[in-house]
Amino acid sequence: MSLKPVVSRQRLKFFAAAVALGCVAPAMAALKIGSKAPDFTTQATLAGKPFQFALADALKKGPVVLYFYPAAFTKGCTVEAHLFAEATEEFNALGATVIGVSKDDIDTLNKFSVSECRNKFAVAADPDLKISKSYDAKIPLVGYSDRTSFVILPDSTVSYAYSALSPDKHVANTLAAVKEWKAKQPQ
To answer: Which helix (H) or strand (E) holds 162?
Structure first.
């Protein structure tokens, strides 16, 4: 008889649901500060209007605040979307673009972008978690992104990375990182 614990399908489903609801702590962001941000293009939506988002194009305008979240319309992800929506004008005034990424399909994100993102910033679809994996923002063994935020500078360098279960500090921390970058720019 083996003494190894057996993980049941029911337990895995429970864990996946707990992650989606923001009840399980995410892993720490493995993509390090100073790393080159992986480029990507994906389907996104702003104010319920789908478009093709390309990181390289957004970086031509200034820094990008890229945040990963487990699932649209869950408690923590809704709070985080509201907080980013409230701060979008301040990010834009600093020349930064905000984009959220989750595994949700574009139809779900069309609704989320209107109601929870309040038509202020784009959210992008990552149904196969390819983008999340490239940023080491996927929870191991679970089909969801963890709650991780990055600030990517126009030269594609990651200047800030933050992972935390609570959505409370993601906006303040990324905003501070963008302000620090802006303060160093020639006038």
So the answer is: strand 158-163
Read out DSSP for 118-137?
TTSSEEEE-TT-HHHHHTT-
Domain count, the chain: 1
Q: Look at the block and give the residue holding tokens 């390090």.
A: 32
**158-163 and 122-125 as β-strands: parallel, antiparallel, unpaired?**
unpaired
Each residue of 10-32: pLDDT tens digit?
434 444 444 444 444 444 546 88
> What's the first-to-final CA gap in the chain, in angstroms?
71
Instruction: Report the C-alpha gap between 68 and 145 in whole angstroms.
Output: 6
Fill in the amino acid letter for 104.
D
Kindly report whether the global pTM for this prediction surpasses the value 0.90: no
CATH code where residue 173 lies: 3.40.30.10
